[in-house]
Every structure is written in structure tokens, then in C-alpha cells.
Amino acid sequence: MSENMFHQQLVRNVWCAGRNYADHAKEMKAEIPKAPVVFLKAGTSVTSGSVIHLPNWSKEIHHELEIAFWLNEKLEYSHFTLALDLTARDAQADAKKNGLPWTLAKSFTDSCPMGQWLDIDSVPSLETLQLELKINNETKQLGDVTDMLFNPQTLLNYIKDHFPVAPHDVILTGTPAGVGPLKNGDKLEAILRDKTRPANQPLLVCQWDVN
Ligand code: MG
To answer: Quick one: pLDDT at residue 6?
Structure first.
């Protein structure tokens, strides 16, 4: 599949795992889930742009850095990248309090910035992937795939068992601890590493400016 096949417009559904890192579940004062927690972001919430626009109706847009996987025609993982599951935390807190859906908090316009897709065969194993988010040069989030409560393949199996998964769907695998609010002027740098490679040779670096 050629690189331009991965244009953001081709993303169909975005299935997202919530609370998939125990340290993040704890910081949200949520229970450690016994089965995957899954919610949707609209495929049209995906953006490949490098500028993050904060919606004016929220006072608290949080960053959640996640590893994203692309599903091919066989509904297998074929590519991966980094994504931000931007979250209107104030709207989410209201929704939780009132027992309402999370759509406003999770699926607003441009709420899913994504990096460039890497071929899954470019790494020997998914188990050695590590993600890091720096804001204004300070590390805010750092996590390993091995910290996930449900690993990427378990998530995929669960999602396929329960939902109408289609080719060109994307799965977001949850965020490690350290989520927090973004403000205008913030400079984000997200790094994806394979820990079997030298630390100064990341697989992918994504940069986003908040404006
Ligand atoms: Mg998330």
C-alpha cells in the first residue's frame, strides 16, 4: 500500500482503549479495568496537521499520547504511528458526573492528531516500543507497551469480537500517566522508540504546536 493511501481522509473508525495503563487509570481515580474499555473517536476527527487548535468551549484540553495501529484489508495491524487522543477533560468530568456519553469530550474537530505511518515490519516486536511526550522540552508522559493492561493484539481481538471493525480503521491503545492541560504556545514533541535500537535513533518524532 503506498504512502499516500494513508491520507487522513481514509481513516474510517477510530477505536480507542481507555484506562489501558494502570498508572493513568490511577491518576484518573478510575478502577483498573478487568476487560478493555473502548470508546470511539470519529474518523473525521483525525488530522495530520502540525498545529493544535483548542476549541473555545473547553477550558481544559488534555494531551493523551498513544500508539495507534492501522488495520489492513485482512483486519490485521499493518502500520503504526503516534496519535494524540485530545480530551476535553472538563466536558468528560461533566459527562461522568451525569452519566452521559463522552463524545463531546473525545471526538471534537481535530481531536485526533496523528503522525506518519510506519510499516509494522520495521520493528522486530511490538513489545519493545516506548512512547514519550515532551512539552516545551519537559517530559510529561513516558510509557512502554509492556505497561499496557491489554496488549495491542488482545485489544484487537476484543474489538473484533464486539464491534463492526473494517479495513482502514485505527486502534488507539491508551495513554500512560502524566496527562495534563495544553495552553496556547505549547510546543509538543512526541517520540516513538524501539528499545532494541539506540536511544538517539527513534522510530518517529512528531511535533505539534498549540495555537
Ligand atoms: Mg486516551
So the answer is: 55
Angle at CA of residue 114, ends 109 and 20, nearest 5°: 95
* Burial of residue 28, with CB atoms counted within 10 A of its CB: 0-12 exposed, 13-18 middle, 19 or more buried: middle
Q: pTM for the full model?
A: 0.94
Cα(85) to centroid(ligand 1), Å: 5
Contact 114, 50 (CB under 8 A): no
Query: How far away, in angstroms, is 43 Cα from ligand 1 center?
Result: 15
How far apart are the CA of 20 and the centre of ligand 1, in A? 8
Low-confidence ranges of the chain (pLDDT < 50): 1-2, 4
Residue 4 confidence (pLDDT):
45
For residue 1, what pLDDT is reported?
46
The pLDDT of residue 191: 98
Residue 35 CB neighbour total at 10 angstroms: 10
Domain spans of the chain, in order of start: 3-210
Comparing CA positions, the residue from 114, 102, 105, 110 lying closest to residue 44 is: 110
Query: Is beta strand 170-172 parallel, antiparallel or unpaired with respect to 65-71?
Result: antiparallel
Domain at 3-210: CATH code: 3.90.850.10
